[in-house]
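Appendix C: a fully annotated inverse folding record. The material below is reproduced so that readers can follow the format used throughout the book. The structure is listed first as tokens, followed by the designed sequence.
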């Protein structure tokens, strides 16, 4: 994010963030140092928060493994195309595709990703 911010600033492209109120260039075309500082701080905080989330996730997995309740996906396992397509949500995607609905419509109805819809379409 910071790299893109810097590249756009160097090219003279004005980037305006409304919340929080930040600009890469002021009205005179000069770099806004305060906004640059804020972007750096926000980026660092984002990286820190992501590392905390990952740490909590790994701790939760460790505790579940100790209790024998978490096994995770076994290394080298695969799911057959038939089994994948037989899942209820994927069956519903197939029906909606046959009805001619667009990906965005299917996403809203089923709450799934466009990648899942594409995979189901390719395999069916």
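Designed amino acids, in order:
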């Amino acid at each position: 994010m910071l790299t893109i911010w810097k590249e756009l600033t160097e090219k003279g492209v004005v980037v305006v963030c409304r919340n929080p109120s930040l600009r890469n260039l002021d009205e005179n075309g000069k770099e806004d140092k305060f906004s640059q500082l804020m972007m750096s701080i926000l980026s660092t905080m984002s990286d820190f928060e992501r590392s905390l989330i990952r740490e909590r996730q790994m701790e939760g997995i460790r505790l579940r493994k100790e209790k024998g309740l978490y096994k995770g996906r076994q290394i080298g396992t695969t799911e057959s195309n038939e089994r994948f397509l037989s899942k209820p949500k994927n069956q519903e995607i197939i029906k909606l595709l046959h009805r001619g609905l667009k990906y965005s419509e299917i996403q809203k109805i089923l709450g799934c990703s466009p990648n899942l819809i594409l995979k189901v379409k390719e395999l069916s």
